[in-house]
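Any chance you could type out a protein's amino acid sequence plus the matching backbone structure tokens because I've never seen that pairing?

——
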Amino acid sequence: MEETGLVFAQDGCQLRPTNGCGATVIQCVCDSELDKLGLEPGESLVEGFGDWKIIAHVGCPTKPSRNDPPARFLRMWEQFKANNGQLSVTKDVIQSQCHAQVQCIGCRRAAESGFEFLAQTTHQSFSPLHVREDGSVAFQGDIGENPRHVYNHLRGYRSFSCQTVVSGKRCLLHRANPQDALEKANEEAWRYMWATIPEEAREVIMDFDEPTVEAAAVKYMKKFCARCRQEVSSAWDILKDMEWFDKPDFLAQTGYDPIVFEGLSYDPEDKVLQVSCDETYLAELITFARKDQKDQERHAEDHIKAQTEVVLIVGHLVHQRMKEMQLRLAQAEQQMQLCYALAASCLWNQLEKDNAESLAAAAARDLLASESSSKSKKKRTKKKKKAESPEQSAVSPVEGSTRQQAIGSCASVTMAATAAPSVEVAVPDEVHDDELKLLEAMGWSNDLNTSLASEDLDVNLSALKEEQLSMRQKIRDDFAKFCAREQAS
């Protein structure tokens, strides 16, 4: 079977909707009876024809597996239940996922209308999921409390993606002439659909009101001349009179053969044309109509040919109704599959997102704890070193006062140089000596001392002066930082 609509990528396998054969028609009801009747669990309302609506059961795309969840999922589920209540996703999350994953605009609209319809109905064919009144989706009952059920129902949609089979931005079911495309994909699909329809619903489907038949006849008889159109209209009147039904010599009296009208009847009270629901007869009518697809001119100059043209008009009506039902059921089936896949995918993503956030929060807490422990360890080590070598840290009062005076004077000079770097500041020689001593204590090499003393050299004084200024500015910046730390301690 060729692809007929969307392709749902499900863990590497492709899940394709059938030609409406996966939906089961339960009954056909009028709009006035629908409010009184209501919907039972598992039933969906499908757009029908005229004043009639189709109640059908449109199942979920796949049956859940019965595997035991792996240890990783169990840990993820325990983490989720420890921080949250029931697993659910909001309407906005589902809409965002729909716009991101579904390419066909017709399918996006169908998914949105499907969720709106499910939110308004009490009984839903969305089991085990349930759409609430606010549009959010969650599991029904206690199913969402069992990790095994959650895993088996959601695991198939963790890598959900949706792409159109044909080129363009619309799938086959939402493109131009989708009915002909469905029939081309599988000409016998209507038989499988017809086999699932109850007898009462078949009779409703095969009833055509008189305005529908006359509109089809006007469109169909454009290919005839005036005389042939008159003959076809007379044959239609003969069919409505129903005198041919119980007169054995009707052919001899009128020239119209009752056998040609076999399988057809007309109800004058309801003004409805009734077609036999026998599958063999319907197959003959549909085959007859398929052979007459070309609008070629021909004549119906006698009674038998006019009768045949009336039957051919009915065949076109039956063929068109079968294609409409097949399309409606295929769209409803694809709509439910898409809604279920979107909801299940969002639920799985929500579970993984919560697990990732929990792991990230735990990692952040561990990192902060390790940093705090490292800082306290460094403080303890520093205190321990100070306690072990008191002689190294002890400073005489004279040395301390001299050192503080040098630091203060050098700090003031450094700040002045930093505030106005373009002005050359005179520094006393004793300050230079104190600077050099402290720089040696800080770990500076003799090369830097040599660079400081190189002012007295008479070699390329202009270039050397610039180098001295930059080097001295750098030393002063580092020395200012050192002074600030010393004063703070």
